[in-house]
Amino acid sequence: MSPTADRLLVVTGIAKAFPGVQALCRVDFDLCAGEVHALVGENGAGKSTLTRILAGVEIPDDGRMLLADRPYKPQSRTEAETRGVRMVMQELNLIGSLTVAENIFIERLPNRLGFIDYRRLHGAAREAMAKVGLGDIDPSTPVKSLGIGRQQMVEIAAGLSRQCRILALDEPTASLTDSEVALLFAQIRRLRAEGVGIIYISHRIEEVLSIADRVTVLRDGQVVGTQATSDLGPEAVIRMMVGRDLGNECLAPSGSRGAAALRVVGLTRGERVRDVSFEAFRGDVLGVAGLMGSGRTETMRAIFGADAAQAGEIYLHGNNEPVRIRKPSDAVRHGIALLTEDRKEQGLFLSLPVRANISITRLRALSRLGWIDSCRERQVAREYAGSLGIKCSSVEQDIGQLSGGNQQKVVIAKWLYRDCDILIFDEPTRGIDVGAKFDIYRMLADLAARGKAILFVSSDLKELMAICNRILVMSAGRVAGTFERGAWSEEAVMAAAFSEYVTSGVLQNGG
Fold it and tell me: Which of 15, 65, 107, 248 could make a disulfide contact with 72, Cβ separation 3.0–4.6 Å?
């Protein structure tokens, strides 16, 4: 981007308030044609609110905007898209019952004589999908049958397939592997070369510095500063975001490994979970790595009883008799908790307040003669909101009004309140800012020190290497290897992640 590039978008004095929260306070922002301008900040800083205003999803309380030197005040998402402003949101906006192709081209389905031309639709969809690494998926596949990571890629493919002047990407890589991020970045660079202005929101600071031309930091709804990425390092960005130094210390538990808490033998479910066996120990953080579609999430769901296993046995706490886990309530009764990767669909009650979402896992502890002690419930909720730094006007605030990262913290809080012995965290830091990530890492180390067994699934290998004692690697539904701290390397872990695909010939045409 040239320093004299024309400003495509100019935002001046934008303000927006929600009940009990001033989300934005007189924010100034601008975007040039052919520029990637990153927005960073802690959860609740106002990043998503600003982009939702630009995309016509929210209406500002004050301020003005200019798009190509003309007044810009969209009253709806459709009006914004008519002006060439499009947004790929952090929360998925897909229709699960429709196919991948139909979701990508939902607003412009090709037709012939009034009927959808599926040959043209599937051909166009294959082209759009190949650009983001989904070439191995049939365009007629229902979206609801895909995992959250691949749904994210479908959402991105839809956004990239549309002509636009401004494209806003809100946490687009939260569930993506490094290879998928590389494909996305290639498309971003293509759009930038074509003169599209791109607003990029991410909590991954190194990623931001590698793709963005400028960075604007928001804190508590206000602009802290805007600088060229060439003048910034990761530490400087983090300091601007959180107002303090976080350090780069190893956050893996330092205590000794205890007795076996969970032993899985021969767990099998279709092609995604194939004869999986491993152990998790008290005081241990066991990382689970692998490519998207490797079976990480499916394995965790089978252990938890969310999906029925076809074969295999689960042993707890050194017992010689396997336990029967046919549904999630069985797992919870045995002291197993699962924080799912899709918090909105599987982790929260969006119609209930923060208070109820935290207390839901132990209502009996708050009940007397069938009635919930509301005072005690609020007290418990306030304690967890405080300890996890959940930003809300009060514990009575509707969960749907919270930012994505704060919603994730509420999901974590409900399982901490349940006090399970075996905690399965599936992508727990997805959509969470760097300050909150460090809080969660320290919380995991504390839980391990208290004798909990933790399984931590993540697409971020650096994250796993920072906080885990061991890393189990899955490849094409199988366990491809387990690495101890001090005996792993990025190269070795990635080689294991690809191993089953290479030997089985699954990886073809870049899929």
Answer: 65
Q: Is 324 helix (H, G, I), strand (E, B) or coil?
A: coil
Q: How far is CA 202 from CA 146, 193, 211, 351, 405, in A?
A: 23, 21, 11, 27, 12
Residue 184 in contact with residue 152, Cβ under 8 Å? no
CB burial of residue 194 (10 Å; 0-12, 13-18, 19+): exposed
d(CA 359, CA 346): 16
Q: Report the pLDDT value the prediction gives residue 501, as an integer from 0 to 100.
A: 67
CATH number of 259-335+422-511: 3.40.50.300
**CATH 3.40.50.300-classified regions of the chain:** 7-242, 259-335+422-511
Pairwise CA distance, residues 374 & 359, whole Å: 10
The secondary structure of 193-206 as a DSSP string is HTT-EEEEE-S-HH
What is the residue whose two structure tokens read 């308030």?
Answer: 17
pTM of the predicted model as reported, rounded to 2 decimal places: 0.61
Q: Residue 328 and residue 325: Cα distance in Å, rounded?
A: 7
pLDDT in tens, 291-305: 777 899 999 999 999
DSSP letter string over 340-369? Answer: -S-HHHHT--TTSBHHHHHHGGGGGGGEET
